[in-house]
Amino acid sequence: MIVATSILQKALDAALSTGADFADVFLEDTYSSQLGFLQQKADTAVVGQLYGAGIRLFFGHEIIYVTTNDLTETGLVKAALKAAQSRLQSATLTANQTAAPLKLNPFDSIHKYGQRPWEMQRERKLNWLRSVDEIARTRNSNVTQVDAALNEKFQRVQIANSKGLLTYDERAYTRLRVETFVEQNGVKESSHDLDGQLGTSEIYDSMNLRQLAESCVDRATLLTTAKYAPAGEMPVVIDNSFGGVIFHEACGHGLETTSVAKGASVFCGKLGQKIANDCVTAIDDGTIANSWGSLSIDDEGLPTQRTVLIEKGVLKSYIVDEMGSRQTGYAKTGSGRRQSYRFAPASRMRNTFIGAGSDSFESMIRDVDYGLFAKKMGGGSVSPGTGDYNFQVQEGYIIRKGRIEEAVKGAALIGRGIDTLGKITKVSSDLKLATGMCGSVSGSIPTTVGQPQILVSSIMVGGRA
Predict the structure, then answer these.
(1) In a domain, 165, yes or no
(2) 395 burial class (0-12, 13-18, 19+ CB within 10 angstroms)?
(3) What is the pTM for the complete model shown?
(4) What is the DSSP string of 54-111?
(5) For residue range 354-384, what is the model confidence (pLDDT) as tens digits?
(6) Which of 228, 247, 337, 411 is the 20 to 30 Å CA partner of 74?
(7) Is 161 a domain residue?
(8) CA 405 to chain centre
(9) In this structure, are 204 and 325 located in the same domain?
(10) pLDDT tens digits for 187-225?
(11) Nearest-angstrom CA–CA distance, 389 and 413
(12) How far is the C-alpha of 334 from the C-alpha of 184, rounded, in Å?
């Protein structure tokens, strides 16, 4: 999918014709595939294609956004004029502007891809899923069901704007999701996990299928005998990897200019201020090679970058897109992202994590007289404006007199992001990342969360009194 530069130039000129002071065009051609394996057989095989363009106009801080599936010159110019004419009666800016001449902005991608999704035989992929099922059932005879799904997406984008930017990119996403169900002594439990990367066929050789499947089975089996967690305020050690979902949800969204520019974030006006202990450094990095949340360029055509959000407890940066920069005056961070051309871009996280510290996991456990070890986090909810969160713990253990003891289930961590930041007293050196999907105003996008193990001096734990 390549649309001629001359056509894009005409569409941008049309977009500016009634006084818009900025316009961009985002064109997309995306192939997607979903394969599912259930009841020990292939259950789902869905292939689709998404094809279209989104045209965005700025009138000051007002955004006009239209989409079209007609990528001919006539279709794009018509859509651009429709957007421009929506402000024809009220435009106060100088009309009849034209876009700067488009100039290709090439870049060197650090992300390497193997076979494209359509180049690999479907039977090979189904055999891969079948092996997940076999590994799980071999692990424990109490496994009653295995649900495995493989999702692949290959996206081609072309981006042009009225400042003269013209660029093109290809992104590939591959992700495996596994859920296992166990019944033991009349108790039924399940556990799920997933792994993925910005990449294609090479994931089939790099992913540890056995570890993924067996850990799901072991966790579900453990839950069949675990007692319910106690309730109360206590120290909590949160494990690495997906434990970082709390920072992502409770703090990360509050650092996006989507919230900051509206004054709808507890982090507004705190740039340069101490918001956490010295042991906390947080980073949003879009440049990690083939990481799930990485990009070469964002969905506004800007090179992605590594952004230090918090350094030794001090707030250093927000997550800033084109409109966010215009509204706040902060420099753009290459963070304009969207699910597809159907959504206007917004400031969004990429690979967001708490950086490695210098403490040991063992010292954290020793510091706790009575508390909770949250080994595996689950889903939850958060209020972006306040950072109030409530997250389930998939797998947890009681810490008693500096030792990890019995497993518990049904625990929830309840708190406020900015408060929790200030209560992180230790951060280990064992940083790990995990894949996820993040939903916000510009749709659902691939993001990575992560952290080393951390010790939070006090969190309200929901459980059974």
Answers:
(1) no
(2) buried
(3) 0.95
(4) EEEEEETTEEEEEEES--SHHHHHHHHHHHHHTTTTT--S--S--PPPPEE-------
(5) 999 999 999 999 999 999 999 999 988 888 7
(6) 337
(7) no
(8) 33
(9) no
(10) 999 999 999 999 998 888 889 999 999 999 999 999 999
(11) 8
(12) 50
